[in-house]
Amino acid sequence: MESAVLGIDLGTTNCVAAVSVNEKTILLTDKQGQELFPSTVTLGENDTVWTGREAVALGAAVPGKTAYAVKRLIGRNYGDPVVQKARSMYPYEIIQGEKSDGVRIKLGSQSFAPEEISAMLLRDIKKMAVEQLGFTPTDAVVTVPAYFNHSQREATLQAAKLADFNVLRLLNEPTAAALRLDSVGEERVVAVYDFGGGTFDISLIRIQGTVYEVLATDGDTFLGGDDIDGLICDELSRIFEQDTGIKLRNFPLSWHRLRDVAEKTKMELSHADQCAVFLPRLVGDESLATDFSLARLEEITRPLIERSVRICGRALEEAGLHTTELDQVVLVGGQSRMPLLRQLVEEFFGMAAATEVNPDTVVAEGAAREGAMLRGGGGALLLDVTPITLGINIAGNRLYPLIPRNTKIPVRREHVFTTQRDGQTQARMTVLQGDHPQASENIRLGEIVLGNLRGDERFQSKIQVAFEIDASGMLHVKAMDEDSGEEKEIVIRNSFDSDQDIQDGVLEEQASLEPVEGAANPAISGPFRETELVDVLCFLHANRKSGRIMVHTSDQNGSLVMADGEITHAECADSSGTDAVQELLRLNQGHFAFHEGFSTSDPAEIKLAFNSLIGAP
Ligand code: AMP
After folding, report:
1. Is 337 in the pocket of ligand 1 (CB under 6 A)?
2. Is omega for the bond preceding 410 within 30 degrees of 0, making it cis?
3. What is the value of pTM for the model shown?
4. Pairing relation of β-strands 537-543 and 49-51?
5. Active-site residues: which are they?
6. Read out DSSP for 477-509?
7. Domain 6-223+302-383 CATH superfamily
8. CATH architecture of 225-300
9. pLDDT tens digits for 117-137?
10. Crossing angle between the packed helical segments 225-244 and 294-319, to the nearest 10 degrees
């Protein structure tokens, strides 16, 4: 078999890998013939690295040398509340990096960054591929939760790099799942509800032919099956303490056994009403023996599932959709097998969930399909969105958002800023992610300093800041001093040195900027010059049969409606006169020149198509 692109679902609990060859998907299997490969790493004797099922088995004996669920830690700072919560949840020790406030996982006498642990899993997946496919895969499409932020994506890329993978694209998990759905038939809107081991995601995706357009995405990177297991553990340890007076938390080996049995109990209760729990000699001579009912499981876990349903409501609101406008609900992630979860989700969406996909493997299968398409050229067109607002700090500790959440990607946004003090020679811009109006309440991704400003009266210098998000959701930031032409690109850092932070606090306020009013990005307000309009268009799709050209700008979606080959009118969410879609119609004036099925998100092609639309040579 010729070298194919590996689709890898690097899950919190399990990894799945697949390749797509001649429209057929092949799932890799581990030594035990299983498609799900536990995302567990254990250091054995002489610090030999064990992964997958063997690591799980060995981990029972050495819980302090076993790492799992590291996806929850990847790309986070030590001070992150999620990391602090994880410290009390997992038997392995989570420590702060020496020079930065990044996270490290201590296994025996060694410590590893989460991405190093993930790389160990990826290396073994590569080995499986060599054995089963007969070639060494170098290219991969790796999936990440839609809600992963920049640092988490960056760290995932780093893990792949450490394992010598060339990542063609990071693909959002729900989009990957949608890619696996049958793409023939009418336009439809699909909700992909993904409740896995560690994260929860909801994405609303419009599928039209081979165009997959994400309308909104939301989620929680700390909501998953592990939390349900944690609640069962709490309940069982409470029973054990009542009977024996012993706190199981103080016994890591016993806790490991408890966690194992909690997950098995949960799975059994997906098709039974009652489950017997028996752990002989759990601590000393004391055993745990009890019955656990489905009713009790549902009682303690209902709030977690309701939390996920509330997030679905938020995503619908963001997309401006009502549940009645959805055509299909797809459940993804092992935890979605839980009957109460299925029931609450189906009640909320008012329809039965689709049964055509395997919730465990659908994401890897979709990634493999995307890999084959990227390799072969053509195929489906993905229009994803960025899940989190990105911006910079401005004077007064305020956030200036440059790319609001749920903006379609790829996207480029610019804004002009100016100095706020007379004689200001330095501009220090901190790149932030988050929606809090107070800059300091958001996550800091990195910073750019321009140090040679003219230092004249305030409001005179002009600094142009450009944010760009590529198809993998990675952020690139540039700032340019318009006077001197000095330009700097950001180096996104996962974590900040704590001493530097204190200094920054002082420097930042003095060196921060003010946005220039009225210098808004053309994507935000019009009227548009023709060249600006080309810049804001990120996707065109013409379909003569349906009589529509779908037009997407970084803010707006719309359609140009055709009759007898002529464009008659524009339809878009915002019908104000400066709307990009309306403007396109005005400029077009009957020069419609697309052929059926034409679609593109390539800027050069858009330019060509646009020129033909407005009749330019
Ligand atoms: P994933 O991240 O998609 O691999 O999902 C893993 C999560 O699904 C883990 O928390 C598992 O305990 C959970 N899971 C797998 N099978 C079942 C099942 N039959 N019932 C309930 N949860 C399950």
Report:
1. yes
2. yes
3. 0.75
4. unpaired
5. 9, 71, 173, 194
6. EEEEETTT--EEE----SS--HHHHHHHHHHHH
7. ATPase, nucleotide binding domain (3.30.420.40)
8. Alpha-Beta Complex (3.90)
9. 999 999 999 999 999 999 999
10. 150
